[in-house]
Design a protein that fits this description.
Blueprint (H helix, E strand, L loop, with lengths): L2 H4 L4 E3 L7 H6 L4 E4 L15 H12 L3 E5 L4 H11 L3 E2 L8 H9 L7 E5 L2 H10 L4 E4 L8 H4 L2 H11 L2
Parallel strand pairs: 1-6, 2-3, 2-5, 3-4, 5-6
Bound molecules: magnesium ion.
C-alpha cells in the first residue's frame, strides 16, 4: 500500500450518527474501533457528553461492539472508556497500526470484521488502513480542537482535495 492509499478512507460521513451501522452489521462488521477526540466527543474532554452516549448506544443497538482506540494518555482515555462502558486501547500511537492490532486482539476480531472510524487523516485513517481494516472518516464533531491537531488540518485539506474525499 502506498502512502496515498494509506491516507484514503473507504468512506466519509458527516458524523458517527450518519454511518449505516445496521447495514455494516449485516455485511459482517462486529466491532467498531473508535477515536474519541472530535469523533465520539469533544476534543480533549475528560468526560463523554450526551452525544458520546447516544453514538455508543446506536452502534451497540445495531449489534456491533465498540472499543476506544485513542492516542491520549491512559488516565484520560481509560476514564472516558469506563464512563462509556466500553474497552479501550490507550496510547495507540496512531498512525502506526499497532494500537489497532491491540484493539482487534482485545476484541477478538479480525481486520475484515473491524471498522476503524476517526476524524483525522494523518492518525485515524492511516492507522486503520495500515492495519488492513475498513476505515471510515467522520467530519470533526466540534469546531474547537487543540493547536497540534489544528495545524495539521490545512495539509489534510490538500490531501482530501487531491484524493477527492
Ligand atoms: Mg480525533
Amino acid at each position: 500500500m502506498n502512502i496515498f492509499e494509506a491516507m484514503r478512507p473507504d468512506r466519509v460521513y458527516g458524523s458517527l450518527k450518519q454511518i449505516p451501522w445496521k447495514e455494516l452489521r449485516d455485511s459482517g462488521i462486529n466491532v467498531a474501533l473508535l477515536d474519541f477526540d472530535n469523533t465520539l466527543g469533544i476534543d480533549r474532554a475528560t468526560e463523554p457528553d450526551e452525544y458520546s452516549y447516544e453514538c455508543i448506544r446506536m452502534i451497540e443497538d445495531a449489534g456491533i461492539r465498540c472499543c476506544l482506540v485513542s492516542n491520549a494518555k491512559s488516565e484520560r482515555s481509560s476514564g472516558l472508556a469506563k464512563a462509556l462502558g466500553i474497552p479501550c486501547v490507550t496510547y495507540a500511537r496512531k498512525p502506526k497500526p499497532v494500537g489497532v492490532y491491540r484493539a482487534m486482539e482485545l476484541m477478538k476480531t479480525s481486520p475484515e470484521k473491524a471498522l476503524m472510524v476517526g476524524d483525522q487523516v494523518f492518525t485515524d485513517v492511516m492507522a486503520g488502513r495500515l492495519a488492513g481494516c475498513p476505515t471510515y472518516m467522520v467530519e470533526k464533531y466540534k469546531k474547537h480542537e487543540i493547536w497540534y491537531v489544528a495545524i495539521k488540518r490545512p495539509f489534510e485539506k490538500i490531501v482530501r482535495l487531491a484524493g477527492k474525499f
